[in-house]
Amino acid sequence: MVSKNTITKLFKYRISMKSMRLLFSTLTLIVSLVGCIIEEDDPSLDDIRDKFTGTWRFDEKEVKSTAAFYDVLITKDPANSSQILLRNFGNTGNFQQAYGIVTASKITVPTQTIASVIMTGAGTLSGSTRMLWTYSINDAADLKNYSATANKQ
């Protein structure tokens, strides 16, 4: 015959095993559900250069001169995630490109030589399809200062 003490021990052991299984099952379910939470795309992970890329029509005004219109193609620099490439910047020709450094709403074109001219400048977004630019071009004979409004095409 089995003693009462032995039955009590078996009963307690059985209850604690059930509790352990229940606890393990509950934890497994919780971990599984947490792994299934749908996450929204984080807009902070978007490429800040996206809003600048495309073709922009520059309406350029040289100080004390007439206006000129030309297109600048802005693309992402594949070699540098904070830079863009500006083809025909300063109306230097479609085979010439400058690089610019992008921040939240501004492109800065550091001093660089493109097509035998030294240029530098900056453009700031004014809405999603317009930029306001100021820049200088030095062709070794003259230093000219420009302002331009660029509209996304």
Structure description:
The structure is a single chain. The protein has two domains: 1-39; 45-152, Lipocalin, CATH 2.40.128. The chain is built from one helix and eight strands. The termini are far apart. The model has no long low-confidence stretch (mean pLDDT 85). It is rod-shaped. With 153 residues, the chain is of the alpha+beta class. It has an eight-stranded antiparallel barrel with strand order 1-2-3-4-5-6-7-8.
The CATH architecture classification of the largest domain is Beta Barrel
CATH topology of the largest domain: Lipocalin
The geometry reads as: rod-shaped
Q: Can you summarize the main beta sheet?
A: 8 strands, antiparallel, barrel
User: What is the CA–CA distance across the termini?
Assistant: 95 Å
**Secondary structure: helix percent:** 10-25%
> Into which percentage range does the β-strand content fall?
35-45%
Q: Kindly give the count of domains.
A: 2
Which characteristics define this entry?
153 residues, alpha+beta, Lipocalin, 2 domains, eight-stranded antiparallel barrel
